[in-house]
Amino acid sequence: MSERERWVPLSMTLAGIPLRGVSIAGRETWFHVPSLDLALDVGRSPAEILPAPNVFLSHAHLDHAGGLAYWASQRRLLRLPPARVFTDPAAVPAWNRILELHAGLEGVAYQVSVEGLAPGASVTLRKDLSVSAFRADHRVPTVGFVASEVRRRLLPGWQGRPEEEIRGAILAGEEVTRLSPRPLLAFSGDTGAGVVASAPREAFEAKVLLLECSFVEPEDLRRARDYGHLHVDDVAERADLFANEALVLTHLTLRSTPGELRRTIARRLPASLAARTVLFLPPE
Ligand SMILES: [Zn+2]
Ligand SMILES: [Zn+2]
């Protein structure tokens, strides 16, 4: 398979969540998740992610973020509504400068705001959808994200009580419900093994986890450590951590062919996890 074929966007529906993207170590990573109104990283900003009104940017490496100004510029050209970018607070001033410089050179104003989302903080995108950030373990400030469906649920004491009684309590101003988030989709950004300690439980309980796993060959373990990336052996070692319906291994290296990656990963992961693991690779 040629390098060009690895670069063709993939569409998948995982645990009922459709997503489309490209993810190749060092080259380009972006995912568009239309049902959640968001993109995770922008890569070189392909046309597919222009409609996303929210971008969650894990970090500033250009394989993930190179297209940010182009995305902002194209949204203006297409007269799309104002959009928001959420990223590590440490990177916000530099991104604002970069976008201002590009907008100035183009003689226009972009309708895009870059906002810091610190680890532990969250943002409400819709009444039924919130996204929180967590710290990832990489060479530059990096955050991962968890998108959760938010539902209102009855407090335990009110469950099973007659509807009329509940309605009466609501009318009387009593608190009978609480907001209950259910993690749908988590994204690790680029990360070393420290993410197992820094990510919240929800990341490993989300229906789908997009997990960076750049390397699979034993001789690349050192390389993974040096560059702040995960190796499949890191995933295998902590197999019991992953309660996700689908664990998606992304950011896979171009140094191995898809066939080699599939065979090695199948060999390294315990069967129970391998059965729930999806490789973000084109079909052979
Ligand atoms: Zn990367
Ligand atoms: Zn990176």
Task: Write a concise synopsis of the structure shown.
This protein has helices at 3-6, 62-65, 68-77, 92-106, 163-171, 195-198, 201-205, 221-227, 232-237, 258-268, 271-274, and strands at residues 10-14, 17-24, 28-33, 38-42, 54-56, 83-87, 112-116, 122-126, 129-135, 143-154, 177-187, 208-212, 246-250, 277-279. With 284 residues, the chain is of the alpha/beta class. The strands form two sheets. A seven-stranded mixed sheet has the order 1-2-3-4-5-6-7. Strands 8-9-10-11-12-13-14 form a seven-stranded mixed sheet.
Walk me through the structure.
The chain has 284 residues and is α/β, with parallel strands linked by helices. The chain has a single domain (8-149, 185-279), classed as Metallo-beta-lactamase, Chain A (4-Layer Sandwich), CATH 3.60.15. The chain contains 11 helices and 14 strands. The strands form 2 sheets. It has a 7-stranded mixed beta sheet with strand order 1-2-3-4-5-6-7. Strands 8-9-10-11-12-13-14 form a 7-stranded mixed beta sheet. A hairpin with a 4-residue loop joins strand 3 (28-33) and strand 4. Helix 3 crosses helix 4 (92-106). The model has no long low-confidence stretch (mean pLDDT 96). The site of one zinc ion has 4 residues, from loops.
Task: State the major sheet.
Answer: 7 strands, mixed
Taking pLDDT < 50 over at least 5 consecutive residues as the criterion, the unreliable ranges are: none
Helix-strand pattern: HEEEEEHHEHEEEEHEHHEHHEHHE
> What small molecules accompany the polymer chains?
zinc ion
The domain count comes to: 1
> What portion of the residues fall into strands of 2 or more residues?
25-35%
Proportion of residues in helical segments: 25-40%
How many helices? The count is 11
Question: What is the general shape?
Answer: globular
Distance between the amino and carboxyl termini = 8 Å
Q: Measured on Cα atoms, how large is the radius of gyration?
A: 20 Å
CATH topology, what is it called? Answer: Metallo-beta-lactamase, Chain A
